[in-house]
């Protein structure tokens, strides 16, 4: 279980690529023609890769081999300050040996290591870990990183940033999830339905014009006290 | 500990799970021991680095590096399958056309109403 730090000798793939530089099969690029940027998709992926290699080399040659700046984007030489290619995630493992190597790389048992199924979505050989959030981990164990409830070197779930203790919690709920959903959406749906029906079919208290006593407030309205007030009939029986 | 009942929102820790204690096959035990061995080695490495008095730099976690690398470079292993093409089209191409169509028709309708003088300006500030 020795992890490598520091400079590493060129890996096999880097040596292969530097050989390709000298004995590669490239497409003929006319100098500075706009057609050079057009690739026909009828080529096989292998040829396309080679063509990409040729394109990159052409671009580098064009900029007179100066490494820093724009041409560094096309360079195939990686800095040796990071982890070696063998320590980084790679493509989906096809053979049992690749599986064992990937399990060792991720610090897992070969039997435990199960890569995410290869459906073209770009997971590579990353392991499929159980979808349990960090809330479910033992709060009393002495983790190396107590806030994340994780030990150093432990394989990280693909959605780890979702499962931290501030975010998604997969702990068991007091009531079953489907019951909670039914209760909540049932109640909200019922209230929405009732309010909608209330808008559609309004029902008010019966309203009538205001009725005043004392012969329609005859004296208070300043009318002649001697004069007989007019009869106002408010109802029909 | 036989009558331990976990809190309503917590899962039972692995060490208190009765399935971990009773009727364990030898293979299960061996597996647990191997896992414990891996864990112990990683702990040891971390502690050696943590308590090294001559250490001046941050302790780098290769698992974290791998995770970051895997999350930021999915296109190295991307393949155009039916599902990925469908998702790409659905999230990247269709919204462009749908949004253009919706906005254009809505604004054209509004323009026509304004030209005909029938547009009802809600919340207008000037009379």
Automatic annotation (TrEMBL), chain A:
Residues 1-29, 116-136 are annotated as: Disordered. Transmembrane segments: none annotated. GO terms for cellular component: mitochondrion. This is NADH:ubiquinone oxidoreductase subunit B8. Residues 16-28 have a biased composition (Basic and acidic residues).
TrEMBL record, chain B:
This is NADH dehydrogenase [ubiquinone] 1 beta subcomplex subunit 4. It comes from Oncorhynchus mykiss (Rainbow trout). Keywords: Electron transport, Membrane, Mitochondrion, Mitochondrion inner membrane, Respiratory chain, Transmembrane, Transmembrane helix, Transport. It is a single-pass membrane protein. One of its GO terms (cellular component) is mitochondrial inner membrane. Complex I is composed of 45 different subunits. The keyword Disulfide bond does not apply. It comes from the Eukaryota. It holds the Pfam family NDUF_B4. Belongs to the complex I NDUFB4 subunit family. It is found in: Mitochondrion inner membrane. The chain crosses the membrane at residues 84-103. The gene is LOC110535445. Accessory subunit of the mitochondrial membrane respiratory chain NADH dehydrogenase (Complex I), that is believed not to be involved in catalysis. Complex I functions in the transfer of electrons from NADH to the respiratory chain. The immediate electron acceptor for the enzyme is believed to be ubiquinone.
């Amino acid at each position: 279980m020795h992890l490598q730090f520091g400079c590493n000798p060129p890996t096999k793939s880097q040596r292969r690529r530097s050989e390709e530089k000298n004995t590669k099969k490239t497409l003929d690029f006319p100098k500075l023609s706009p057609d050079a940027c057009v690739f026909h998709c009828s080529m096989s992926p292998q040829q396309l890769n080679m063509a990409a290699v040729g394109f990159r080399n052409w671009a580098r040659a064009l900029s007179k081999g100066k490494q820093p700046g724009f041409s560094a984007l096309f360079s195939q030489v990686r800095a040796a300050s990071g982890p070696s290619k063998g320590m980084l995630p790679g493509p989906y493992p096809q053979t049992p040996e690749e599986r064992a190597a990937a399990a060792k790389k991720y610090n897992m048992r070969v039997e435990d290591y199960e890569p995410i199924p290869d459906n073209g979505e770009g997971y590579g050989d990353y392991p499929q870990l159980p979808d349990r959030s960090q809330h479910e981990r033992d709060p009393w164990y002495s983790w190396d990183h107590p806030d994340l409830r994780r030990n150093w070197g432990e394989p990280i779930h693909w959605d780890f940033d979702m499962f931290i203790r501030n975010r998604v919690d997969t702990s068991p709920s007091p009531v079953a999830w489907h019951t909670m959903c039914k209760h909540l959406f049932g109640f909200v749906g019922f209230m929405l339905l009732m309010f909608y029906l209330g808008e559609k079919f309004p029902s008010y208290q019966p309203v009538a014009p205001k009725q005043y006593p004392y012969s329609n407030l005859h004296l208070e309205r300043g009318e002649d006290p001697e004069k007989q007030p007019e009869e106002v009939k408010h109802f029909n029986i | 500990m036989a009558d331990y009942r976990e809190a309503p929102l917590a899962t039972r820790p692995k060490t208190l799970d009765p399935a971990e204690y009773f009727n364990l096959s030898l293979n299960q035990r061996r597996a647990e021991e191997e896992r414990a061995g891996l864990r112990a080695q990683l702990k040891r490495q971390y502690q050696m680095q943590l308590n090294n008095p001559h250490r001046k730099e941050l302790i780098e976690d290769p698992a974290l590096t791998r995770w970051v690398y895997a999350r930021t470079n999915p296109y190295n292993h991307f393949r155009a399958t039916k599902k990925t093409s469908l998702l790409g089209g659905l999230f990247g191409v269709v919204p462009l056309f749908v949004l253009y169509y919706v906005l254009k028709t809505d604004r054209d309708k509004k323009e026509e109403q304004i030209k005909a003088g029938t547009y009802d300006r809600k919340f207008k500030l000037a009379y």
